[in-house]
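User
Take a look at the entry that follows and flag anything odd:
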Amino acid sequence: MVGRGDPAAHARTLGGFGRRRARRRDRADAVDIGHRAMRRRPFRRTAILATSVLAVTLATVGCDRSRASEAEKEGVVAVSLGLDPDVQRRAMASSPLPVPPADPTNRWADDRGAAALGRRMFFDSRLSADGSVSCATCHQPERRFTDGLPLSRGIGTAARHAPSLVDAAHHRWFNWDGRSDSMWAHAIRPIENPLEMGGDRTAVVRTVLEDSELRSEYETIFGPLELVAESLPARARPQGDDASTDAWGSMGGEDRRAGGEVVANLGKAMAAYQRTLRSEPSRFDAWVEDVSSGGDGSAHLDASELRGMSLFFGRAECWECHSGAFFSDGEFHNIGIPAPNGLPRDPGRYDGSLLVREDPFNAAGPHSDAPDGVQAILSAGVKHDAEAWGSFRTPSLRGVGDTAPYMHDGSMPDLESVVRFYSTLENATQLDHHQESVLTPLLLEPGEIDDLVAFLETLSGSYAGVGDGKS
């Protein structure tokens, strides 16, 4: 997708790397005891106050000692394992896997009937213009819901690599550029994208109306349909070719609203299905559980993988962006991925920030089940900032060993290529304007690259989902 601005105005060649990334300081809990002047009071009240202050002070001291004791204990354990205490603390905080957060914008998010319908629609190629493409074309269960291609292929060739859908329920923003603010809105977009499925809203609605079994399943969940297939144009959509947009404009307002509601409900059903696609514990998680229980973790990670983990959570500082149980901060960064002719063309979050606000299916829209909720407020406040040009969402590293190729453009074929890029930043074209850090080469030794790759592969495990994700 070509950006709205001139990419040359936003791209610059990477210069020297003199400055080392400023480390984020770990925040420790602290207790602040204020001192206030007290007026004289009768003896009894003063004694009570003094006793209360003493109790609070003793409790505070006890908490401080408890925290210090816990920190000392963690340090002793880390040393016994041959790890830096900060490395171990960060590693232990990255497991176990949490359950997906609630989605107030989708009242059927955790409805099993909706998930079953959504699974059916996910594999249904009738949603595409020529009946040849389904969601599973680019999100294949056997490839951890990716397609293994640098650029996805549907009706045409897309501009980006297909990210995995496993654990996507934990995202704050969807797609590489955050153009959708919910999983159900994200599920709708490919249907009308001319390079992906090339379909349209009325064709989708007619599919539901004309298939008696599908219609019955839909109505059991969402209620009766009042639309009549014969009254709808064969092909109509608010944006697209002239014939489709003219047909959309010829429809009555109530038919457009009702048609949009059907499409939104199908998106919510597909989101309910995709929410069931969850990572199962990996070898890294087994290591964390073992160490937490007093073991040494040696049955789960070998020496090379432990060295890689020390790099990840230590000197290489990968954890700064790849943090938490899903190894992602969920934010957008420009890391200067090499581009043809040294000139990046994909505006990333710069365009995505506009698209999410303009999306009729966003969290604040008429089809949202929480139009005044937190996500609606967040989406309305998204800034369209030139500094976001070329920034992309930090992907999760869960299952990363199974989702090659890498980066938003699929330009790096394997994990070694990714780590080598961070090691040298060779041919990097543009740096993030992030105020907290400056990306600099890691300057890793060959053995360190192998170790870091080995650790990343320990984050891969199986996944669970409705029907185990099989078509």
Q: What stands out?
A: The longest helix spans residues 43-80. The mean pLDDT is 86. DSSP finds 15 helices and four strands in the chain.
